[in-house]
Recover the amino acids of this structure.
């Protein structure tokens, strides 16, 4: 099975469960924290961008999820260092023969950070909260919920569709039964999504968590989301100093699982990759993510621990068919694909081990089709197609993000420059539009669809084709701008609803063939293995192929 291929790949990450270093020396030894490891002190990790907020349901990017996953737990989780599933707030679970009714047997004795008891009623409160969310602004920000559950009790967002979720029952304190309207291949993996973390019902009510306001092109969130996030995780919220660009999290002494080794975790936001590297060398931070490909060997030579995660991701050039009528012509989208010298981009800008992508998911995922139409670099073919389509000399507004590095996109500016030059070489005029990642770029692309083409990507959350292809192209989105591709949406829904594994594999393979040959809503660029780096004295960091690192196991000194 292809799933076993992923397990083999992520075993590399498990083997890289690190003992690696920091200048924040330990101050104490605590009894019962296991193995005599040093505890206490502060671990400072450099984030690559500001979080949007701390309410998991309203987030969809790694910089927002990094602090959230330290404070919140999900019903099930990914086993550290792998994409395998294990119990978290639920110790075990099962489903009926149709895959519609999921029963979770919950962990006993768990408390939220505010002292409230975690139980089945709390689980149902969270699921019902999401399903019954009111307001178009709030619904528009629930991207992961939409990708998994499709719609709400009352759809107010134009992107919402038929709801997969039906109800949640709590027959007793330790059992939660979640009923779906239909089978979906996302489960059980989707129950491990950080976006679907379980928050304190009391805190959600007290701090007005459902209040989301849209002001022009920006969104405002609640006191819960910005100042009082309350989960069950190994760290509690200690504050977000926006002037200092620091998020402080404190050790939760009552955590149900492995208690944090450090007293304090600080996520220091440093957008510039070079500055992050300098602060790592200076010892003012003890860990960084997404180092530039050219810096990895140098950092290793200096004694830092550089861990390359498996490339369970995709970078793509998205094409918005709404604003520019020429982009509705398949020949124009194909011309863009032929114009891009992706192999040269891989060789000059990609981390070691980067591969040109022909599909929108790694080849380790069920449904990968080796016989899809491929777009080798062919600028003459691109010019020919543009001429046939009457699109010679067309102009594209090319959006790309600033102030961020992503696992699949270590340097957006450099990637944009190379791809823009390729497009210009075949006669396409490019108007580059640089926008900050949160509070600008993501809203312009994913909410308002202002772009013609854009750079974006994805790190898989779980090993299912729906998490990649379904998340991108399973419904109408502002990113790609053509709600008329109903045959694509229907084909993806059919594949995702196929229970038989052989049938599911065949259905997804055909979807991937048709995406490449018939629909081409975007151009896949590459799969790139992202790295995470820590100082040599940091111990206990387990690198995740899903970039799903938890810092409760980390000790310093």
């Amino acid at each position: 099975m292809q799933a076993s291929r992923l397990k083999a790949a992520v075993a590399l990450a498990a083997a890289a469960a690190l003992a690696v270093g920091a200048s924040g020396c330990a101050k104490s030894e605590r009894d019962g924290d296991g193995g005599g490891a040093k505890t206490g002190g502060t671990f400072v990790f450099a984030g690559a961008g500001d979080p949007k907020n701390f309410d998991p349901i309203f987030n969809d990017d790694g910089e927002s999820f990094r602090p959230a996953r330290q404070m919140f737990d999900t019903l099930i989780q990914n086993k550290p260092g792998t994409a395998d599933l294990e119990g978290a707030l639920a110790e075990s679970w099962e489903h009926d023969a149709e895959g519609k009714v999921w029963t979770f047997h919950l962990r006993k004795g768990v408390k939220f950070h505010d002292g409230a008891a975690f139980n089945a009623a709390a689980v149902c409160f969270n699921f019902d909260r999401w399903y019954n969310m009111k307001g178009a602004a709030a619904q528009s920000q629930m991207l992961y919920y939409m990708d998994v559950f499709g719609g709400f009790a009352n759809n107010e967002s134009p992107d919402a569709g038929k709801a997969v979720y039906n109800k949640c029952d709590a027959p007793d304190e330790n059992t939660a039964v979640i009923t779906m309207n239909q089978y979906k291949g996302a489960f059980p993996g989707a129950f491990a999504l950080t976006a679907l973390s379980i928050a304190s019902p009391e805190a959600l009510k007290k701090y007005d968590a459902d209040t989301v306001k849209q002001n022009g092109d920006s969104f405002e969130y609640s006191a819960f989301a910005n100042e009082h996030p309350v989960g069950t995780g190994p760290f509690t919220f200690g504050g977000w100093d926006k002037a200092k660009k620091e998020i402080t999290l404190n050790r939760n002494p009552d955590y149900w699982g492995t208690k944090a080794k450090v007293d304090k975790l600080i996520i220091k936001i440093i957008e510039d990759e070079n500055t992050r590297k300098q602060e790592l060398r200076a010892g003012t931070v003890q860990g960084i993510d997404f180092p530039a490909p050219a810096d990895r060997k140098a950092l290793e030579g200096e004694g830092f621990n550089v861990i390359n995660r498996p490339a369970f991701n995709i970078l793509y050039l998205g094409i918005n068919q709404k604003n520019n009528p020429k982009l509705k012509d398949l020949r124009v989208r194909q011309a863009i694909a032929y114009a891009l010298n992706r192999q040269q981009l891989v060789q000059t800008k990609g981390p070691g081990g980067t591969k040109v992508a022909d599909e929108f998911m790694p080849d380790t995922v069920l449904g990968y089709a080796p016989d899809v139409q491929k777009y080798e670099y062919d600028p003459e073919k691109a010019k020919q197609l543009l001429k046939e389509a009457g699109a010679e000399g067309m102009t594209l507004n090319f959006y790309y993000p600033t102030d961020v590095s992503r696992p699949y996109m270590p340097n957006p500016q450099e990637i944009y420059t190379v791809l823009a030059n390729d497009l210009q070489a075949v006669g396409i005029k490019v108007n580059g539009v640089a926008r900050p990642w949160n509070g600008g770029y993501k809203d312009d692309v994913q909410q308002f669809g202002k772009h013609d083409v854009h750079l974006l990507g994805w790190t898989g959350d779980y090993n299912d084709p729906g998490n990649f292809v379904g998340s991108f192209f399973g419904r109408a989105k502002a990113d790609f701008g053509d709600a008329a591709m109903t045959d694509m949406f229907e084909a993806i829904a059919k594949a995702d609803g196929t229970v038989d594994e052989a049938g599911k594999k065949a259905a997804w393979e055909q979807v991937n063939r048709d995406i490449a040959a018939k629909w081409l809503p975007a151009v896949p660029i590459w799969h790139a293995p992202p790295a995470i780096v820590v100082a040599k004295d940091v111990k206990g960091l387990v690198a995740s192929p899903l970039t799903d690192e938890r810092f409760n196991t980390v000790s310093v000194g």
